[in-house]
Design a protein that fits this description.
two-stranded parallel ribbon, alpha+beta, 12 helices
């Protein structure tokens, strides 16, 4: 039996390209249609537009209703498969676009008790969702308000996210790597937009004194340690093993290259944040992974007592970029590796 889930926390655009009107309080569907016609703008296609269909798993769609309201719909044979699609989509959009869903108390995937219709209102959706829960668990008005808010998405972003999910579903190691990277970024990346670190922090970081850096570390040590370990788990998933030794790294990179047609064992990686600590700009991936393996062992395996090894945001951001860069080369084989001149 098919099950239907609304992906909560995102507000996708009904149109592509980005045109249209925002909602106006109290207007009917015919009022909305009239506004579009008077402005010469074509109405968006109502109903379901499929972005990803995966045999034996389900599909991800854009569902447009009420003239221009839209939500992401997941149709699957069960809850487990729905979360394979939903968690993969969230991780892909977070890691590669910086589009994390808005968190809501009602949850991420909200099950509908039937396939939605094109003339539904947000109130109708809220009633359908609440019908799946016993004892009046959701306040209809509160849930309806949640459905009207979220992180905006356009069709290009949704299409790219679905293309990542499509490939990741064929390789559980990639799907798990994505989810560990996503969690790492919710700990140290999610509270600040990525553009800050990419565009501003590279300049501001150089101005910080050792005393200021120590203060930042003391305030954030548990978060840095946890984010680093989670990103390293993503690296382990990407390489296909839960644990590895330094002597294994070269062999694992070669095997990964054979599986995905990459060149990780041969190319060089440009450091964006580690350069602040090590002063080294270009790395062989194997050398950088070996360096981080020692840090991981100190932080996770041995509890990092005292601590003898300080994990700063330099290392957290760099390992996040490293995992993202490697995943990017796998998902988009046409991506050119950055090689030193």
């Amino acid at each position: 039996m098919l099950r239907y889930f609304l992906v909560n926390g995102y507000i996708p655009l009904a149109h592509e390209p980005r045109v249209g009107f925002g909602p106006s309080r109290g207007e009917t569907r015919s009022d909305r249609v009239g506004r579009y016609k008077r402005s010469g703008i074509e109405l968006p296609k109502l109903g379901e537009t499929i972005f990803l269909r995966k045999a034996k798993v389900g599909r991800i769609s854009l569902f447009v209703h009420g003239a221009y309201d839209a939500f992401i719909l997941i149709v699957s044979t069960g809850q487990k498969n729905a979360y394979l699609l939903g968690n993969g989509l969230r991780a892909a959009l977070t890691c590669f676009d910086g589009h994390s869903p808005q968190e809501n108390p009602s949850g991420y995937l909200l099950e509908l008790n039937k396939f939605p219709s094109m003339d539904m209102t947000h109130n109708d959706l809220a009633v359908m969702i609440s019908a799946e829960f016993s004892q009046g668990e959701f306040d209809i008005a509160v849930l309806e308000s949640q459905l009207r808010t979220g992180t905006g998405l356009d069709h290009i972003q949704l299409k790219q996210g679905c293309s990542i999910v499509d490939k990741a579903l064929n390789y559980p190691r990639l799907r798990n790597a994505l989810m560990h990277l996503e969690y790492s970024r919710t700990l140290v990346w999610g509270y600040m937009v990525g553009s800050y670190y990419e565009s501003h922090d590279s300049y501001d970081r150089r101005k910080l004194s050792r005393y200021q850096m120590e203060k930042r570390y003391l305030e954030n040590r548990p978060r840095y340690d946890s984010a680093f370990v989670s990103a390293f788990r993503g690296l382990e998933c990407l390489l296909g093993v839960p644990h590895f030794r330094q002597i294994d790294i070269s062999t694992l990179l070669v095997k990964t290259d054979r599986t995905f047609g990459t060149s990780f064992s041969r190319d060089r990686y440009r450091s964006w944040h580690e350069v602040f600590s090590s002063r080294q700009k270009w790395w062989k991936r194997g050398d950088l992974i070996a360096y981080y393996l020692k840090l991981r062992n100190a932080v996770a395996a041995h509890g990092n007592l005292l601590p003898p090894h300080i994990v700063m945001e330099d290392q957290v951001f760099e390992i996040q970029y490293l995992v993202q860069d490697m995943l990017g080369h796998i998902f988009w084989p046409e991506m050119k590796c950055e090689l030193e001149g």
